[in-house]
Amino acid sequence: MKTTFLFLLTALLMGCGDRTTSGDDTDSRSESGSDSNGTDGTDGTDGTDTEDTETEDTEDTDTDADGDGACGDIVTFETGIVPQTEIHVAVDGDDTTGNGSADAPFATVEHAASHAGPGTAIRIHGGTYAGGIYLSGLAGTAEAPIWIGGTADERPVIEGDVEGLHLSEVRYVIIHDLEIRNASGNGLNCDDGGDTANPEATRHVVLRNLFIHDIGTGGNEDCLKLSGVNDYFVLDSEMAFCGGSGGGSAIDHVGCHNGLLAGNHLHDLSANAIQCKGGSANIEIRGNWMASAGERAVNMGGSTGFEFFRPPLSASAPNVEARDIRLVANVIIGGAAAFAFVGCVACAAVNNTVYLPQQWVFRILQETVSTDDYTFSACADNLVANNIFFFRGNRFPPTSTSDRTPCPKPSRWKTTSGMPLTVRMRRPRPTCLRRRSNR
Description:
Blueprint (H helix, E strand, L loop, with lengths): L1 H16 L34 E4 L29 E5 L19 H6 L5 E5 L3 E3 L2 E4 L9 E4 L7 E3 L5 E4 L2 E11 L6 E4 L10 E14 L8 E4 L1 E7 L2 E5 L6 E6 L2 E6 L2 E3 L4 E6 L2 E7 L2 E3 L4 E6 L20 E7 L2 E3 L3 E6 L1 E2 L2 E3 L2 E3 L4 E6 L17 E3 L2 E3 L9 E2 L10 E3 L8 E4 L3 H8 L2
Parallel strand pairs: 2-3, 3-6, 4-7, 5-8, 6-9, 7-9, 8-10, 9-11, 10-12, 11-13, 11-14, 12-15, 13-16, 14-17, 15-18, 16-19, 17-20, 18-21, 19-22, 20-23, 21-24, 22-25, 22-26, 23-27, 24-28, 26-29, 27-30, 28-31, 30-32
Antiparallel strand pairs: 1-33
């Protein structure tokens, strides 16, 4: 209990006290259809370790970034808006004789959704409902979104089938207060219906207060699969026991943009807590708790089949697996590596607390490479600053790098005794050495 409190306090203090990053701190960096399973980026080639060079431990410095670092309630498009009508669903309801009222509820979410328009709240009452729920084309508005979820006193369970709940081509929709479990594929899938070139296909989605667990059959299955989703929030949810055998994530992004993941508890995973790949960009991962999250707790980038990129790959300009992914003020406990930059450009890990990483502090890799048809930018222009790394012994676990290694900004490195330790960074670039001499 004491350890939990201390880590939460650390995350809050670090996240609020310093400015966060917007992904454009150039002074600190080097110059330079729905896929139901996706292509997992967790099996990349290991980086090569080289000679160590000493760097003295320093005090925290300002990240010189542009974010405001403000703390407080998160504002979404549903903030301050209340439903205009309600449609009720209950395990003892009837889609034939019911009318969707509290006294005569429908039996299925699909039937209720067919009657829902802007401003409607679908209230699912307590009980267990069969998985395999598929909802397509739901469209609220900014002034009148659509809500689907439990009531104030009841959190219903969606259980079984290949997918618990699948949303496709939706806009201004809020999914809330649900438990999803025991699906053999993905727990909750939200996608653009395979319209990969259309950024409007699925946009403005809030996913909050969800409990998704025990998903998959021990392979590459995810608690929450997001493909081609834009302008979205994943808030205050718990996800655990998804996938297995080095595959599967709590939250897997393929070609998603403009997202905020905050206040989530992601634990007991095989590959990742969070993965952002396939052209994903401008995603902030803030104030989450990740424990025993597998090979790479946060995978910024990865390895994606070319047909799954959103937007589609360009044949005339460089492409990236991920851009501007910001890992800010999280607690990351255990796992093989706390985070990894994998073909990621202009990404950042700032103000996080990393506790007892098992194999690497973080990794820098390039898994998707250029071909005759497409050019991919190398992993570069990334930032590591003002984190606390807590580990056992008198040497910290190494960073693992590919050929292009950024120069991390000062972070705190502590042993289990709590004493500062001289930091030995691997594979310094000449630009890093020059910057060090100019501090």
